[in-house]
Specification:
The protein has 94 residues and is an all-beta fold. It has a single domain (2-93), classed as Immunoglobulin-like. Helix content is 0%, strand content 59%. It is built from no helices and eight strands. Strands 1-2-6-5 form a four-stranded antiparallel sheet, with no helix packed on it. Strands 4-3-7-8 form a four-stranded antiparallel sheet, with no helix packed on it. β7 and β8 (86-93) form a beta hairpin.
Amino acid sequence: MWALFFADPARLHTGTEIKIVWRMTGAGDLSIAVSGPAGRTIRPAWGPEPHGGSTWQRPGDEWGTGWIFPAPGRWIFHAARTRAGTGELTIQVT
Protein backbone atom coordinates (compact mmCIF):
# COMPACT_ATOMS: atom_id res chain seq x y z
CA MET A 1 0.00 0.00 0.00
CA TRP A 2 1.24 3.46 -0.95
CA ALA A 3 -0.22 6.85 0.05
CA LEU A 4 0.40 10.17 -1.74
CA PHE A 5 -0.73 13.17 0.34
CA PHE A 6 -1.81 16.36 -1.41
CA ALA A 7 -0.74 18.20 1.75
CA ASP A 8 2.38 18.23 3.90
CA PRO A 9 1.93 15.07 6.02
CA ALA A 10 3.87 16.76 8.83
CA ARG A 11 1.22 19.53 8.98
CA LEU A 12 -2.16 17.81 8.94
CA HIS A 13 -4.81 19.86 10.77
CA THR A 14 -8.36 19.21 11.97
CA GLY A 15 -11.23 20.60 9.92
CA THR A 16 -9.26 20.80 6.66
CA GLU A 17 -10.01 18.41 3.80
CA ILE A 18 -6.96 16.37 2.82
CA LYS A 19 -6.76 14.52 -0.49
CA ILE A 20 -4.88 11.22 -0.40
CA VAL A 21 -4.21 9.04 -3.43
CA TRP A 22 -3.71 5.35 -2.72
CA ARG A 23 -2.05 2.56 -4.65
CA MET A 24 -2.60 -0.94 -3.42
CA THR A 25 -1.96 -4.42 -4.73
CA GLY A 26 -4.59 -7.14 -4.62
CA ALA A 27 -7.83 -7.36 -6.58
CA GLY A 28 -11.30 -5.87 -6.44
CA ASP A 29 -12.64 -2.73 -4.81
CA LEU A 30 -10.80 -0.76 -2.12
CA SER A 31 -12.40 0.07 1.22
CA ILE A 32 -10.82 2.38 3.78
CA ALA A 33 -11.88 3.08 7.34
CA VAL A 34 -10.12 5.31 9.83
CA SER A 35 -9.99 5.01 13.62
CA GLY A 36 -8.73 7.75 15.88
CA PRO A 37 -8.62 9.16 19.39
CA ALA A 38 -10.98 7.62 21.96
CA GLY A 39 -12.06 4.92 19.48
CA ARG A 40 -13.63 7.47 17.13
CA THR A 41 -14.10 6.37 13.51
CA ILE A 42 -14.58 8.40 10.34
CA ARG A 43 -15.44 7.67 6.75
CA PRO A 44 -13.99 9.48 3.75
CA ALA A 45 -15.53 12.83 2.79
CA TRP A 46 -15.45 11.34 -0.72
CA GLY A 47 -14.11 8.24 -2.43
CA PRO A 48 -12.50 5.91 -2.85
CA GLU A 49 -12.67 6.87 -6.53
CA PRO A 50 -10.70 4.77 -9.03
CA HIS A 51 -8.03 6.74 -10.90
CA GLY A 52 -6.85 6.01 -14.40
CA GLY A 53 -4.01 7.47 -16.42
CA SER A 54 -1.92 8.58 -13.46
CA THR A 55 1.78 9.42 -13.71
CA TRP A 56 2.39 8.24 -10.11
CA GLN A 57 4.07 4.89 -10.63
CA ARG A 58 3.73 2.47 -7.71
CA PRO A 59 2.55 -1.16 -7.55
CA GLY A 60 -1.19 -1.83 -7.59
CA ASP A 61 -4.32 0.03 -8.66
CA GLU A 62 -5.00 3.67 -7.77
CA TRP A 63 -7.84 5.48 -5.95
CA GLY A 64 -8.40 8.97 -4.59
CA THR A 65 -10.02 9.86 -1.26
CA GLY A 66 -10.81 13.00 0.73
CA TRP A 67 -10.65 13.18 4.53
CA ILE A 68 -11.61 15.69 7.20
CA PHE A 69 -10.27 14.89 10.66
CA PRO A 70 -12.59 16.14 13.43
CA ALA A 71 -10.09 15.94 16.30
CA PRO A 72 -6.33 16.09 16.83
CA GLY A 73 -4.42 12.93 17.62
CA ARG A 74 -3.27 9.69 16.07
CA TRP A 75 -5.44 8.36 13.22
CA ILE A 76 -5.03 4.90 11.71
CA PHE A 77 -6.11 4.05 8.15
CA HIS A 78 -7.27 0.45 7.62
CA ALA A 79 -7.38 -0.42 3.92
CA ALA A 80 -8.55 -3.64 2.26
CA ARG A 81 -9.11 -4.89 -1.26
CA THR A 82 -12.00 -7.25 -1.98
CA ARG A 83 -9.53 -10.04 -2.71
CA ALA A 84 -6.00 -10.33 -1.29
CA GLY A 85 -4.72 -7.05 0.00
CA THR A 86 -4.71 -5.19 3.31
CA GLY A 87 -2.70 -2.30 4.68
CA GLU A 88 -2.46 0.10 7.58
CA LEU A 89 -1.08 3.64 7.88
CA THR A 90 -0.82 5.82 10.99
CA ILE A 91 -0.70 9.63 10.88
CA GLN A 92 -0.65 12.42 13.46
CA VAL A 93 -3.19 15.26 13.11
CA THR A 94 -2.84 18.55 14.99
